[in-house]
Automatic annotation (TrEMBL):
Keywords: ATP-binding, Cell cycle, Cell division, Cell shape, Cell wall biogenesis/degradation, Cytoplasm, Ligase, Magnesium, Nucleotide-binding, Peptidoglycan synthesis. The lineage of its organism: Bacteria, Bacillati, Actinomycetota, Actinomycetes, Mycobacteriales. Residues 116-315 form the Mur ligase central domain. PANTHER family: MUR LIGASE FAMILY MEMBER (PTHR23135), UDP-N-ACETYLMURAMOYL-L-ALANYL-D-GLUTAMATE--2,6-DIAMINOPIMELATE LIGASE MURE HOMOLOG, CHLOROPLASTIC (PTHR23135:SF4). NCBIfam families: murE, PRK00139.1-4. ATP binds at residues 118-124. Belongs to the MurCDEF family. MurE subfamily. It holds the Pfam family Mur_ligase_C. Its EC number is 6.3.2.-. It is an enzyme of class 6 (ligase). This is UDP-N-acetylmuramyl-tripeptide synthetase.
């Protein structure tokens, strides 16, 4: 990995205090100087200001000693520390982003940042954007829940949208590497938890909104409101908005920044796609926009990728990027890891790994999978623990409505009882009565079962985890990659 944030000029603590405004109170002399900021004691570097935040499980102040051991020189929190000079503010989480941006030289001001939000398609759209930017000759970086990639290397992502201090460090590193545009995912958690405060977006992109994350946001209106925060004139210069659902239309009607809309259903959009052909080799469609009509041939699979490509082209159009080069880049993208990724070990049926984990994704993808076969669609499915329990039954119901065989198994239960998760999904799937429903707790066995049941011409899809490399059972975590497991299962079945 080579995305280290280079050291920054020291900033006196008194200057930090001044930046935070009149409500901030300093406990200490203010003689110290800080060279960076971190909100995780484990990631503190010598010279850092440690932002100790109240969280869901802990208060960061509990980790002050560890921050000191790593070289923290001062703290930002909602109460003073006995260990470090502290600047106290009422809501330190709100303060971190803008302060980190200032300490790292306002990196987003020097970058064209494409922020992608929405329930589904953020990662895919960010990959398409990066490919389009690079195709147009623009040095691009990418921040997604899979990896963070600049011009000089990449590293695995910890979450979809990095915490505020890590985000500003990454943007500063990108800037120093010569990156000039960044495609990044902006999750609703990221917006609600102020991770992107202090970041200026050249364009905010809205893909779509469907039920998800209601454990955190409580209802769809709050979920939408979190997403809509990205589109305020204080955060973004322009917007690209998908209007194929009610929420996108609502957003398009209310944003005050210059915007273009896109759609794969409505000619009323500024940029729209039609004549979609999605088969097992790729996806083509006609794109109609301000500069005319062009045919786009994606190597990515599934009609949903037309929506994501429209999102990317619309955002690139809004930013005035050369579209010929950008479209060539988009057409060259061969896969997004774990997003309808084909697994081919020479078997006589189609096999995919996908990340669908909500009914919005299921409803968009199953029709495509169905179109690929005259035989059966077999899905391996589960529900992730510690997430909205209200989404489990709909996942089971929709899978059973749209597939022929549903193999229910474990995803990552985290601290929840795996059997309860399986029962919720399988119970709902069984009530549909049209699909065969099996429960196979161990994921590798479930995948092998699906493969064994596949006849020539069928479609097998292992859903829900995409490219995740670890299955998390709370106390036990084990390496598990669905793509490897599916490939191995296919090979084993061929030998048998
Ligand atoms: C809601 C949320 O984002 N929570 C994350 C967050 O929790 P938190 O801020 O409440 O932190 P906490 O664990 O209570 O700890 C409090 C403070 O102590 C600090 N700390 C904690 C432990 C330690 O050893 N040292 C230390 O400094 C933490 O950095 C934090 O500032 O910080 C924790 C550790 O730093 C994360 O483990 C935790 O992720 C939770 C488990 C999580 O699952 N987050 C998911 C839901 C998430 O954010 N997902 C979205 C994408 C969703 C999607 O699009 O599908 C994302 O953007 O990734
Ligand atoms: N435009 C779309 N419309 C509906 N479903 C989609 C769309 N794009 C992707 N999907 C589905 O959502 C899954 C996740 O896709 P992707 O990772 O691109 O989205 P995401 O918004 O980043 O999701 P997450 O935040 O969960 O990573 C895909 O595997 C696919 O099943």
């Amino acid at each position: 990995m080579s995305i280290d944030c280079p050291s920054r000029p020291p900033t006196p603590l008194r200057e930090v205090l001044r930046r935070l405004g009149g409500a901030a109170v300093l406990f200490g002399t203010g003689e110290e100087v800080v060279t960076g900021i971190s909100q995780d004691s484990r990631l503190v570097r010598p010279g850092d200001l440690y932002a100790a935040l109240p969280g869901q499980r802990w208060h960061g102040a509990a980790f002050a000693a560890e921050a000191v051991s790593h070289g923290a020189v001062a703290m930002l929190s909602d109460h003073p520390s006995e260990l470090l000079p502290t600047i106290v503010v009422d809501d330190p989480r709100c303060a971190v982003g803008p302060l980190a941006s200032a300490l790292y030289g306002n990196p987003s001001g020097a970058l064209d940042v494409y922020g992608v939000t929405g329930t589904n398609g953020k990662t895919s759209t960010a990959y398409l954007l990066e490919a389009g930017l690079r195709g147009a000759g623009i040095a691009a970086g990418r921040i997604t829940g899979i990896t963070v990639r600049g011009c000089c290397g990449s590293r695995d992502a910890v979450r979809t949208t990095p915490e505020a201090s890590e985000l500003q460090q990454t943007l500063a590193a990108f800037k120093d590497q010569g990156v000039s545009a960044v495609a990044m995912e902006v999750s609703s958690h990221g917006l609600a938890l102020h991770r992107v405060d202090g970041t200026s977006f050249g364009v905010a992109v809205f893909t779509n909104l469907a039920r998800d994350h209601l454990d955190f946001h409580k209802d769809m209106d709050s979920y939408f409101a979190a997403k809509a925060r990205l589109f305020s004139a204080e955060r973004c210069a322009t917007a690209a908005i998908g209007i194929d659902d009610e929420f996108g239309r609502r957003l398009a009607a209310t944003v005050s920044v210059p915007r273009l809309t896109f759609s794969s259903k409505s000619v009323a959009a500024d940029i729209y796609g039609d004549d979609v052909h999605a088969d097992e080799g790729g996806t083509s469609f006609r794109l109609h926009g301000p500069s005319g009509t062009t045919t786009i041939r994606l190597r990515l699979l599934g009609a949903h990728q037309v929506d994501n490509a429209l999102a990317a082209v619309t955002a690139l159009t809004v930013r005035g990027v050369d579209l010929d080069g950008a479209i060539a880049g988009i057409e060259g993208l061969d896969t997004v890891p774990g997003r309808l990724e084909a697994i081919d070990a020479g078997q006589p049926f189609l096999a995919f790994v996908d990340y669908m984990h909500n009914t919005g994704g299921q409803r968009r993808l199953f029709p495509y999978l169905r179109s690929l076969t005259r035989g059966k669609v077999i899905v391996v499915i589960g529900a992730t623990g510690n997430r909205d329990p209200g989404k489990r039954a709909p996942l089971g119901t929709t899978a059973a409505e749209l597939a022929d065989i549903v193999v229910v198994t474990d995803e990552s239960p985290f601290s929840e009882d795996a059997e309860v998760l399986r029962d919720d999904v399988a119970g709902a799937a069984r009530r549909v009565k049209t699909a065969e429903v099996l429960v196979v707790p161990e994921r590798g066995e479930a995948i092998a079962t699906a493969v064994t049941l596949a006849a020539p011409g069928d479609v097998v899809v292992v859903a829900g985890r995409g490219s995740d490399a670890v299955q998390d059972f709370g106390r036990v975590r084990r390496p598990f990659d669905d793509r490897v497991a599916l490939y191995d299962a296919v090979l084993r079945s061929a030998r048998a």
